[in-house]
Amino acid sequence: MNYEEEENNDSNLDTNWIKEFETTDQNYIQFYNEDVNEIKVTSLYIDKENNIETIKEETLFLKQDNMVTKEELIHVIKKNSFKDKKRYTILSLLKYNIDLETSNVKHYLKSLLSRDFLEVVKNIDNIPLKKTISMFQDLNTLFILFYEKTISTFGSNHQTTKKIYISNNKTKRKQLKVF
Question: In CATH, what class is 30-148?
């Protein structure tokens, strides 16, 4: 067999199985893990009586895949800390990130045991996110709980400092000379 005969045999090979595999693979592409490049941010506003006043949702497009940076987080918190002419302070920060492996989806759906995907974020710092199955990407959420801040008036606050006036007017005494 020479080189020309091999080339003809290669062109005559059946490549239909590759095409079938690619079309079948397209059906399962939604079950592959992908980088998280956006996350839903849900802000919950709680009033002084501990009632949920408002819920606000927005999408945050991440500058870095699989990471909510400290700068992005601070920007979102500052932007959402005022609502309806009221000031809110951050009460809690929660991250919901589904990190199931593709092979475990079927087992997870049939299992009675629940996995806890909700985590408390203790510090305002970079928040790492794990890769998520593309079908569950829209479930990844960052929950920010805001509590209404009480504004004290000047008259009712007893912790005001007393103003002290300092003057430099010393009384000058003249001595009488005795002759």
Answer: alpha beta
